[in-house]
Amino acid sequence: MNLEVTILSNLVYSEKYTRKVLPFLKSEYFTAREHKIIFLEIHEYVSQYDALPSLNALGIECQERTDLTEEQFKDVIGVLNVLSDDISDHDWLLDATEKWCQERAIYLSLMESVKIADGQDSKKDKGAIPQILSEALGVSFDQHVGHDYVSDAEARYDFYHRKEDKIPFDLSLFNKITKGGLPNKTLNIALAGTGVGKSLFMCHCASSALLQGKNVLYITLEMAEEKIAERIDANLLNIPIQKLSDFPKVMFEKKIANLAKKTQGKLIIKEYPTASAHVGHFKSLLNDLALKRSIRPDIIFVDYLNICASQRYKGSIVNSYTYVKAIA
Q1: Which residues of the chain have pLDDT under 50?
Q2: Could you report the per-residue pLDDT of 37-90, keeping only the tens digit for each?
Q3: How far, in Å, CA of 94 to CA of 3, rounded?
Q4: Which of 295, 270, 276 is nearest to 219 (CA)?
Q5: Do the strands 216-220 and 299-303 form a parallel or antiparallel pair, or are they unpaired?
Q6: Model-level pTM?
Q7: How far apart are CA 79 and CA 83, in angstroms?
Q8: Cβ distance 264 to 295 under 8 Å?
Q9: Domains, the chain
Q10: Which pLDDT value is given to residue 96?
Q11: How far apart are CA 28 and CA 32, in angstroms?
């Protein structure tokens, strides 16, 4: 018995399994036409009657279809006759079905992309290919539909008392204000007027994170990479920025070597031209760092957000608030 037949059998005989997977299954995932027809009839029956169909009901529904020849109807009945009420292990079958759906979705999206690339699809152009592949790669049996206030009360209590993983500042007052530092997966803005020292503050925080053994990515769209590195040198090496150019090379290299012994972290500084780079470029940079240098940043500094480009609004005329919000 192959997996497709096993899936159909459990759709008929296991209500728990059917409730879980039916919203994610598609008829095009099935390879054989008779399997597709049986699935469509199961789906329609469950949707209409909110119950599992019997084999007899499926046979009658298939018999009333007008798009089947006598030979095709016999093939459908043949499949119905081999459907087994021997229910498979629920967890195993759920995982196997999810993997099968993912593989079929990727295969079908690749075939569709090839047709588009060859010009065989007149309705879609090549620009639709990334979206098609992205949707296929995103196939998942995610059952989460929201927070149940009563049923999820225990999980909510645990959340209140969970110790959040944070990157601390080396400034005690900032740690007091933020209750220990910057939480993961958050966007934090250093807001100040022109010339107050936003870049200096971020260079200081980047230096601090590096000394904590964190991997740091500093993206600059205003100053050159060397200028940012110069400020970080002055911070980490404890040398006035005006004296760096006169500092002996031997002593400079010795201080860098001593610094390397203090941390396992990496600091990468990447410059982009003003208003030319958006999150698409940043994602590409993250992929390159992971593949070429095996570096995954723990914290990313963007200097600064208002002079990034927006991937969402390309060439559109929108107000500055909407544009910067889209970047964020």
Answers
A1: none
A2: 999 999 999 999 999 999 999 999 999 988 888 999 999 999 999 998 888 888
A3: 11
A4: 270
A5: parallel
A6: 0.60
A7: 7
A8: no
A9: 3-137 (1.10.860), 190-327 (3.40.50.300)
A10: 92
A11: 9
Range list of H helices, the chain: 3-13, 15-21, 33-49, 55-63, 70-82, 90-117, 129-137, 153-160, 172-178, 198-211, 225-236, 249-262, 279-288, 320-327
Amino acid at position 45, single letter: Y
Strands 182-183 and 166-167: antiparallel
Summarised one tens digit per residue, pLDDT across range 189-207 is: 999 988 899 999 999 999 9
Cα(11)–Cα(46) distance, integer angstroms:
10
Quick check: helix, strand or coil at residue 219? Answer: strand
Collect all residues with Cβ–Cβ distance below 8 Å to 303 and sequence separation of at least 6: 198, 199, 202, 218, 219, 220, 221, 222, 223, 228
Looking up tokens 């060859």 gives 118
- Closest alpha carbon to 181 in 208, 216, 217: 208
On whether the CB atoms of residues 190 and 198 are closer than 8 A, the answer is yes
- Residue 205 Cα distances to 17, 100, 211, 227, 267, angstroms: 51, 46, 10, 16, 12
For 208, the token pair is 């601090």
